[in-house]
User: Fold these one by one.
Assistant:
Number 1:
Amino acid sequence: MTQTKVLLDESEIPTHWYNVVSDFPNPPAPPLGPDGQPIGPEALAPLFPMALIEQEVSVERWIKIPEEVREIYQMWRPSPLYRAHRLEKALGTPAKIFYKYEGISPAGSHKPNTAVAQAYYNRQSGINKLTTETGAGQWGCALALAGQMFGISVRVFMVKVSYDQKPFRRSMMQTWGADVFASPTDITNAGRSILADDPDSPGSLGIAISEAVEEAASRDDTNYALGSVLNHVLLHQTVIGQEAQKQFAKIGEYPDMIFAPCGGGSNFGGVAFPFFADNAAGKNVRLVAVEPSSCPTLTRGHYAYDFGDTLGMTPLLLQYTLGHDFIPPSIHAGGLRYHGDSALVSQMYKEGLIEAVAVPQIATFEAGITFARAEGIIPAPESNHAIRAVIDEALRCKESAEEKTLFFNLSGHGHFDMASYDMYFSGELVDYEYPEVEIERALHNLPKVAAG
Ligand SMILES: *Cc1c(COP(=O)(O)O)cnc(C)c1O
């Protein structure tokens, strides 16, 4: 009998998070303030607890995971590593396909890995209210759950188009005790200013971030939590890749290529960074971020300092960006509709340490359905992006008769995304290539600072 699932014991949950900066060939570019000068930790203090700010700028290789956080991880971690025997057979590929399944968390994705850590450090510093944004609702659910565990009340600004498309994600957040608003709202200055220009605004992650940041910055008892992009968020997600390394070691396998969907970069960083450490030590595993052609941040964006939000309230980060005023097409992978990308992932892409590909929407649903029919699990639309890229590679291996080992992060399940699958079945989904003129236009609206 060949093994399908590789399981670890709870005692094998990682004890430390891995900080990829410790293996960077060049130091990371500093965040800048509105005056174009590097900011110090105090600039972030109105929004984040000091422990997270320290992680944001840390160059330590290993950061200890607090016992309280590891105990909560035990509810669903270690997550299983699967060998996709049935998908390999369906494709007729000589490639071996493995995936790590993060959909077993209570919220259904990888996002609680950082939500729990962020709620913990906020509670430690005496904070009892958090604001945040959410696109498809995965992050809002994760933080609502984590807030509930530490007695923190959570207010979520949910991108309006998703609020309308995914009502049960809202119900889940409410079940875990969060207040949820369709963004743009009329309860913040940021929201009101957007509505004044466009009363029918579908919202965007950038706008929802502006609203959440404004609320947190204007109240002493309230902090802000971000579900991706920032260094500390990617740090917390490295439990995924570390577990995968142990699981591969158990069965004497090792990946040639790793794929993950890439929105803000957190599940990609989570799975790929620990393997980057292997590369730094002499291995040669290709790390591939997969993004939508409709929001092609890494593959077609500008590498420049830009804001993290639409109204320009956050510090400037050097990143690949489509422009902070980017209003994404209403594609269905809500979690991948962000204008920018993690500064760490961006720098690694710029320096040729990782790869990126963009895939069109309809092909991602085709891939997700092929996967579900072979492996059973119905993937989140975001995860379908990685599956598309893996299937494409597995089919190339079939042509060339190569026995590569392919590994991807199945970042979440799609149980609350069935309306999107329905649109695929009824032929209502469209492919949307982000137009070149919009990419050019974004360049003109970038904040003016000396480029890094
Ligand atoms: C949020 C999300 C993503 C993308 O976000 P990253 O920050 O790039 O990880 C991918 N998959 C799922 C299921 C998500 O919820």
Note: Residues 109, 111, 138-139, 228, 261-268, 335-336, 380, 382-383, 411-412 surround pyridoxal-5'-phosphate (CB under 6 Å).
Number 2:
Amino acid sequence: MTDLHHTLLTLDSHIDIPWPDRQDAWTEDTARQVNVPKAIRGGMRAVCLAAYIPQSSRDESGHVEAWERVQAMLDVICEMGGHHNGQGARVCRSASDVRAAYKKGDLAVIPAIENGHALGGRPERIVDLAQRYGVRYMTLTHNGHNVLADAAIPRKDLADEETLHGGLSALGRDTIAAMNRSGVLVDVSHASKSTMMQASGISTTPVFASHSCARALCDHPRNLDDEQLDRLKDTGGLIQVTAMGSFLKKGGGGTVEDLVRHVSYIAERIGIEHVGISSDFDGGGGIPGWKDATETVNVTRALVAAGFTDSEIAAIWGGNMLRLLEQAEKAAEAT
Ligand SMILES: [Zn+2]
């Protein structure tokens, strides 16, 4: 079993980085749930690291601040490439880069953005960030509506009503077109249902949810309901079940077994090719059985115990996400 785990290209599709940066990505003995030594020790082979932009005011000052912060965070993520004490990390721009890093035994780092607020209301900036940093996905929102789209969880402290745009704004639609052209996946985690349904209708590359769970099993606004899951199936999208106790079990307290219960439910409803895994480590994630990157083998154990075959586990653990990244790359080349 441990043998199987260490043959897998395990890809965790959502991890935050501490901010402000503490320059501790290579130091094993810190409170961080994921750093290079912990990931390598735990057999976590590829990580999507998110530059997380908190939602702030939807005006010029909020937009200037967000644009500066996203570049500073992506600078830090992209500086992680290199070798220290016999361990390596490689910043990856493509699925083939990820496979090459895996073959060498290096940790694959895939840059991502959490919250389209980062663009400061200028859709074309995603093209620039994709070119400069190799950004591969961006959530349209965080908690709180932004100028692109409505969020699943409005922010009363920012004077949010239940809805601002009724889903996507015109700017949000332009942003999705720019993301499609640049090979940046449209991430609908944190987006409202109307935003998600509209985005899946206009995006030329299937949308995905980098860190969400199944609402049928746990009624939380951050989870996707059956209609949304069916839409992912119809459009070729993907949902990456996440290790957030309160999304896994009503009232909280979800465990690694609950995480696999969500994976099984989604696989049965829409097919194994539409489901994967994420931790949301260093962003609030972490559950009994998978509290940091060093315990990643327990997820594989629970998948085996739930009856998945080795090839199914390989698809869930990264194959599906790599396929989607490749699809986005091909679509970008074709434009
Ligand atoms: Zn999040």
Note: The first strand starts at residue 11 and ends at 16.
Number 3:
Amino acid sequence: MDVDIACVGFGPAMAGFLTTLSRGLVKPDGTPALASPAEPGMPLRVVCYERADDIGFGVSGIVTRGRGLRATFPDLDPKQIPMAARVVEEKVVYLLDPIGASRRSWTLRAADACIRAFKGLLPFEKEAVELPWTPAFLRKEGGLLLSMGQFMQWVGAQVQGVGAVQIWPGTPVSQALIQEDKVTGVRLLDQGVDKQGRPGSGFMPGMDIHAALTVVGDGPVGPIGRQLDEHFGRPQGHHTRDWAVGMKFVVDLPQDTPLKAGTVMHTLGFPEPEIFGFLYVHPDRIASLGIFVPSWFDSPVRTSYRYLQHWMLHPYLWAYLQGSKLRSWGAKTLGESGRRGEPCLAGDGYARIGEGSGTTNVLSGSGVDEAWTSGTQLAESVLELLQSAKPFTKGNLEQTYVKRRRASWMEAEARVAEKSRDGFQKGVVRGLLGMALAGLTKGRLALESQAAPPYKRLPTLEEYYLGRIPASDIRQLRKECAIKGVSVHAALMPRSGWPAIAYDGKLLMSHQDALLLGGKVAGPPGYADHVLFLYPHLCVECGTRICAEVCSGQAITPGENGVPAFDREKCVHCGACYWNCSQPHPDDPERRNIAFQAGAGGLHSAEN
Ligand SMILES: Cc1cc2nc3c(=O)[nH]c(=O)nc-3n(C[C@H](O)[C@H](O)[C@H](O)COP(=O)(O)OP(=O)(O)OC[C@H]3O[C@@H](n4cnc5c(N)ncnc54)[C@H](O)[C@@H]3O)c2cc1C
Ligand code: SF4
Ligand code: SF4
């Protein structure tokens, strides 16, 4: 099939692109404003393929200054969008460890001891200290609080309403078509195959879609972005070694909650010092809350689900959450390399937008507005090139899109943020100081250091628990868990001081129950497995098996003979296994022993 513009992924970046583009494609009387260069006389043909089964896929409650969103929708009224609110209150809260199980450095222990000693003089309440102010670089004053799923449905309906572009959900793109260093379109995923990708009855090879321009906005774990990186390389010194796994709940707060719609809370310090948390209050007593487990957390026990439960149970948060009820649930990884994660933004026949193009600002904790803005910048550039009948060459895209991006507020803020989180490579206290330094000096000063890939950072379970749990016990527990087909953290965490979770069936429940209650997870038949363990012998030798520990959907289990097993029907496409795998790929140390390919299905919950 031939189109003019083929788009991969419908996240905020693509929503920004298609909103701005479609406005330029239609005249006020509804007739096409631009003809297709490929088929003169016909309207421009723009098609967007989204992997998830709905255009409202999204896994974040969002707080955003909304600068880019407001530039597109100057009259935006939050009342138009379900679950949206204006930000009315922001708090940063330091959580002390009330149970003594978290791994705290001596500096942090000393700080905690001081806080406890002088608690009468501090805003100390329920084992927590509310910071007296929110640093300016984090503040979202006057901004918006959104549900990503609801926002995407709202904006998707508007884009489709214009009638100038088509969006196809449930249609994963398997690869970019590349001919002599020019991207000529995309190939859709084969259907009617078995788990290994072998054709079965009803086999339908993925269709080739030829396009003059391919726009790639497939997010932080997008396989098409990665294919382009492997083919075209990354700019010198750029890498994607900083990331975080975000896991969240959407809950009904209790009837008598004192929390007002528009309240934004950020936490640090607990359950582990490296884990940041958030709680955003939507209208009607609904809240989005969750944690981020970052790449620099040097623990092979990175289970987001269990840590999220301990976080909710912190006395400061539990005072608000007791009596709450789970509505939906989700997990997704977040690219945190920022500007340093930037790939080649444009080439012959293609352009990259959104988080996969390094837009996320790690200092302000903002991703949606930047992703959106990169999309609008590309749309303006595409319209300019179409109007002047110029082809989508690398040179023309650099002269328009890349130039706009470099000249924008987004680039200026990305430069300020570029080194702001480097300090975390050497510990939390240093990390926080580095952020403050970069934030207060507008990026002129930072505590610089090199990000190391997980395989260089992660200790084995035996090393991590040295002095706390004997290696022989760990080996035994590992064997028992492998026989039961379960991950080992559930057995190890209680041994290192983490109390059992008392399930209430409403907010506190087993991981499996949360998967069942908190949204629909689907793995439609007829598609190949999208998570592959590339070199099984590396898995057999692996000291962490962290892929099974971190799996957000319990889709990866220890498996037989030391090689993990993958169940496509439970996978929520969060990408945690891909980022966390602790063994480097033998041919490329920037890759790991897991392939994360294009796949169908995943999590569906419009509230996320
Ligand atoms: C828990 C959590 C909380 C967050 N909180 C905030 C916040 O408070 N404020 C904020 O500004 N940002 C926040 N973010 C970050 C924000 O969600 C991202 O920066 C933003 O979604 C990036 O947009 P994007 O369009 O670039 O990518 P994505 O949102 O990742 O969208 C990419 C799309 O591409 C699709 N796709 C991938 N591969 C394919 C394929 N092969 N074929 C077809 N489609 C494909 C995906 O299904 C997805 O829909 C948060 C993120 C998480 C995970
Ligand atoms: S996929 Fe990676 S983390 Fe999982 S067992 Fe294999 S090498 Fe270890
Ligand atoms: S297997 Fe799926 S659910 Fe599990 S970590 Fe990987 S992407 Fe996430």
Note: The pocket of iron/sulfur cluster (ligand 3) is lined by residues 531, 550-553, 555-556, 571-577 (CB under 6 Å).
Number 4:
Amino acid sequence: MPDGLSFPRCYTARDVHAEAPTPVYSHSRISSFANCPLQYRYRYIDKLKSPVEGVEAFVGKIVHEVLEALYADLGRARASSAEDYTALFRNLWRQRATSSLRIVRENMTPEAYRDLGVRCIENFFRQNHPFEGAEVLGCETQVEFNLDPEGRYRMQGYIDRIDRVAPGVIEIHDYKTGSLPRERSLRFDRQLTLYEIAVRDRWAGVKEVRHVWHYLAHARKFVQRRAPEDLIRTKLATIRAIQDIEATVVFPPRPGPLCSWCEYNGVCPEFRPKTARPLPELEPGSLQYRLFPLS
Ligand code: SF4
């Protein structure tokens, strides 16, 4: 890890895109550039490893893993109770929680995050048990696809779950452990629209694709569809976003409200915690609190 103080405020590097002849992009990669070009550079060009992991991402990872295990053996899931899967969540939490976890929100504790994960699993189980009415085509399915006929703009992603609910009717499921979306923001969601492009590429005879978001902590489900022109618009906008990234040689920092959650704020010259708190004494193996104010 380079010394944060030695980083310049902006980068100028003309060879930064020489990493691969045809780089493969993802929704999160493009979002990272839109959020902060310097964060993009740290993550995707310099490939800096962060010594900390955000607790929100940690909760999400374990919740996804438990739901993947549930769908891997539906016979067992049908005969089980929600408590069987919340116990699995608690076990994984105990095994994996380390001192590299970072909590930003001052009013939250490790136990509160653990309980949030438990609530997500309970809500999902109670809403969906006995898990019937669809053929599961895949969980955590990796997709790779082109945005253009020549294959110049390549994308990849992992779809949380793909169901066939009727002949030619596919559902793309996405699990969220965070807060509810703002009104209408799902209309402009790029991620599942890109996944629909991938699904239509992979399976012949798809007549309808439904986008299904599960806001697990709130026991809320949202379902939408996209028109053919939405897919074209998203393809073109994503190609334009990739062209912007590839034309960039200067990656300036863009400080904002998300800086407190940025895994590189320990090295970023623009991060200014107003009142960073001293860390409490740690027991071996306990969670590390790193409290920064929300800017
Ligand atoms: S701390 Fe903020 S400005 Fe710095 S790299 Fe992260 S997001 Fe960008």
Note: The domain at 135-237 is CATH 3.90.320.10 (Lambda Exonuclease; Chain A).
